[in-house]
UniProtKB/TrEMBL annotation:
It comes from Amantichitinum ursilacus. Gene3D superfamilies: MazG-like (1.10.287.1080). This is MazG nucleotide pyrophosphohydrolase domain protein. PANTHER family: DCTP PYROPHOSPHATASE 1. Pfam families: MazG-like. CDD domains: NTP-PPase_RS21-C6_like.
Length: 104
């Protein structure tokens, strides 16, 4: 996944529709939260086994994938708007997680 390329595509998509005025950090986080809730809805009330079995149902898996894409697009747009290098942020967080949760 080429994050910079996807962010450029998302930026151009937003500009073509005059959406940057609405893509404030607060609005993007709120929109991402809504999309997370829509993703969560696919798993609500499922047993762990049923949740794993979603991968074997192409129609349901496609619907879940679309919600995952919505969440990721908002996250990438937020990072772009705020100037956060997600690759760097993830690398730094992994170091902190390794310290906080050392392997046995």
């Amino acid at each position: 996944m080429d994050v910079a390329h996807i962010q450029q595509q998302l930026r151009e998509f937003a500009v073509a529709r005059d959406w940057p005025q609405f893509h404030t950090p607060k609005n993007l986080v709120m929109a991402m939260s809504v999309e997370m809730a829509e993703l969560l809805e696919h798993f609500q009330w499922l047993t762990p086994e049923q949740a794993v079995a979603l991968k074997d149902d192409p129609a349901r898996l496609d619907a879940v994938g679309q919600e995952m894409a919505d969440v990721m697009m908002y996250m990438l747009r937020l990072a772009d708007v705020l100037g956060v290098d997600l690759g760097d942020a993830i690398a730094r967080k992994m170091v902190l997680n390794a310290i906080k949760y050392p392997a046995p």
